[in-house]
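A brief tutorial aside. Many learners find it easier to grasp structure tokens once they have seen a single protein encoded end to end. The record that follows does exactly this for Uroporphyrinogen-III synthase. Read the sequence first, then the structure, and try to relate runs of similar tokens to stretches of the chain.
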Amino acid sequence: MSKDLQNKKIVIAGSQKTEEMAEIIERRGGIPLVRSLQGLTDSDPVEVEEDVKRFTRQGADWFIFTTGIGFEAMIQAAERLNAVSEFEKRLKETKIACRGYKTNAYLKRSGIHPVVCDDDGTIASMIEKLEVFDFTDQKVWIQLHGELSSQLHHFIQSKGSMDVQVVLPYRYHAPEQETLASLMNELIQREVDAVCFTTRVQVGYLFDYAKEHGREEELKSVFEQDVLAAAVGKVTAEALQDKGVSRIIVPEKERMGALIVEIANYYEGQLNEVKAD
């Protein structure tokens, strides 16, 4: 494998699969720095089990899943209740919508085939696909990811649904202030070359910290001029754009490995430009 990331310091802002990402960076000659800007906290297992029992008992017209691990958390709750077959049977009687190819893959393992699947991965795109359906007087369940998404919730209500149930199997928790301070200093001092953002929440935490300390414009300047902002997918890239960052690397396939390859390609292109000059 080419060493196209030779001595480049690449920040990993996620909290999942950090060892896997670090290994890919190292194989390409880079130096991985884990600065987790968000983590996941499981909700009370009893709450998720109650959600599973209620859905299995009552059913619904629609169930909208926004993450694969959210669906997996509900399956695990059903396993603890010895009610997987009943839960899956009820899902098969329900119209299913899902966000992203990963969520679809989780559903297919249980033999669930969505009516709507948004491979684009954004809530806006999912809403666009759901626009053609009539939700008048429909009972709708929504599994959300990490935080409440008023956008999707409000859309379903605006389409005439009078009964919307929200399931939140896990929540994001804020990064350590020490981690934020350390990364901010590394960015301002231009001590790192790129930051890999894997969720929009990570972007929010970093820029909120910068704003609190009066350094938001300085942070934007860092990303626009010196440090490369890399987003694993469109949703995360949109979060960066919303903060005023325009110089962003986004892989075609929303995978962490593809993100590292895209960063490597960027630096290889820069090197070729220098050689050409």
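Self-check: The radius of gyration is 21 Å. If you spotted this yourself, you are ready for the next section.
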